[in-house]
Amino acid sequence: MSKRVIILITIVAWALGCAYTAYDYGASRLELPYEDEYALHWGFQLLMFAIFRFPFWFVGLLAVVSAEVVMLRPAPGKLK
């Protein structure tokens, strides 16, 4: 497989994992009793996910893709 295909597979797997985590985060928070009505909406829970959890997911994606780019770089003496 080429480097682009491997990175594309990584990004798709990351997006699926991130989407599932966002759903799980929102669903688990909607089950809790809140006095505030706004906290019982999906939009608010997704906003909280985007603020508190998504940055960690994004940094993880950058770290994995950076490692893939370095590890899949051809050796200095090899031709492409």
Structure commentary:
The chain is mainly alpha-helical and 80 residues long. The chain has one domain. Helix content is 71%, strand content 0%. It has 3 helices and no strands. The protein has helices at 3-30, 42-52, 54-71. The protein is rod-shaped and about 65 Å long. The protein starts with a helix and ends in a 9-residue tail after the last helix. The relative contact order is 0.15.
Key words describing this protein structure:
mainly alpha, 71% helix, single chain
Mean pLDDT rating: 90
Topology, number of strands: 0
Cα-based radius of gyration, to the nearest Å: 18 Å
Structural class: mainly alpha
Categorize the overall geometry: rod-shaped
Number of helices: 3
C-alpha end-to-end distance: 13 Å
Strand residues, percent: under 5%
Helices and strands, with pairings:
Elements: H1 3-30, H2 42-52, H3 54-71
Helix pairs in contact: 1-2, 1-3
Summarize the structure.
It is built from three helices and no strands. It is mainly α. Helix 1 packs across helix 2 and helix 1 runs antiparallel to helix 3.
